[in-house]
Amino acid sequence: MRVRHKPWAREMLESHPQYVVSSPEQYKGNWKAVFEKDQPLHIEVGTGKGRFITEMAKANPHVNYIGIELFESVIVTALDRLIEADLPNLRLLNVNGEKLTEYFAKGDVSRVYLNFSDPWPKTRHAKRRLTYKTFLKLYEEILIDKGEIHFKTDNQGLFEYSLMSFSEYGMLLKFISLDLHNSDFEGNIMTEYEEKFSNKGFRIYRCEVQYQ
Ligand code: SAM
């Protein structure tokens, strides 16, 4: 993904510690200290500009959410949304998803969302896909028993690869849609990429998988 550099982004993130958790490792095993209510925690890895996670947090006040994004120039837009909405059940982390186990202990997280993850189409880059087996192991290490991953993409190749990866890992494939927007799935919240690609006529794929 091309990212426009915003030199002021770091300062903006640092000046809102009530929304952007700056030393997440200190909350490992104790994320309830960050939120008003002690309730299940769902995270999105690769949250981008944050529309999905913000709307989810508004719609589901009984769930705590964390949006995780690598690039500060991207997550600042999510921060803008969060400042505007001022939600007690949403926080942001500007960190690399490869380091999830530094920030979360086993059982801290009840669900992982992956939306329109970078496809990394070249086989030699497969290890970078957020559904590669090493990432599935990371998610397993922070999720509750029988925790779930909910995954959406417009990329057929990435979807096929991910279903294989989930299956080879021994996960239960609970729900699969090959055309989300023409399915009976209710309550879909669109991400920025989802809107962009579905407007161009791309089909959206979605699945829910569970560790066993
Ligand atoms: N989920 C958003 C959406 O659907 O609109 C953004 C999709 S964008 C294609 C993928 C995002 O994942 C990018 O913002 C990228 O920086 C982020 N990302 C990729 N690898 C990541 C990682 N290892 N840790 C955190 N974020 C990551």
Task: Output the keywords.
S-adenosyl-L-methionine; tRNA processing; 7 helices; SAM-dependent_MTases_sf; alpha/beta; Rossmann fold; single chain; binds S-adenosylmethionine; seven-stranded mixed sheet; EC 2.1.1.33; 212 residues
Brief sketch in words of this structure:
This protein is of the alpha/beta class and 212 residues long. The protein has helices at residues 9-14, 51-59, 72-85, 100-103, 133-142, 156-168, 192-199, and strands spanning 41-45, 64-68, 90-93, 109-115, 143-153, 172-177, 205-210.
List the helices and strands and how they pair.
Blueprint: H1 9-14, E1 41-45, H2 51-59, E2 64-68, H3 72-85, E3 90-93, H4 100-103, E4 109-115, H5 133-142, E5 143-153, H6 156-168, E6 172-177, H7 192-199, E7 205-210
Parallel strand pairs: 1-2, 1-4, 2-3, 4-5
Antiparallel strand pairs: 5-7, 6-7
The structure holds S-adenosylmethionine.
Describe the overall structure.
The protein is of the alpha/beta class and 212 residues long. It has a single domain (38-210), classed as Rossmann fold, CATH 3.40.50. 30% of the residues lie in helices and 21% in strands. The chain is built from 7 helices and 7 strands; from the N terminus they run αβαβαβαβαβαβαβ. It has a 7-stranded mixed β-sheet, with helices on both faces. It binds S-adenosylmethionine.
* Strand ordering within the main sheet: 3-2-1-4-5-7-6
CATH architecture: 3-Layer(aba) Sandwich
* CATH fold label: Rossmann fold
Question: Proportion of β residues?
Answer: 15-25%
Distinct ligand kinds: S-adenosylmethionine
Name the CATH superfamily assignment: Vaccinia Virus protein VP39
Low-confidence stretches: none
- Pairing-aware structural class of the strands and helices? alpha/beta
Gyration radius (Cα, Å) is 16 Å
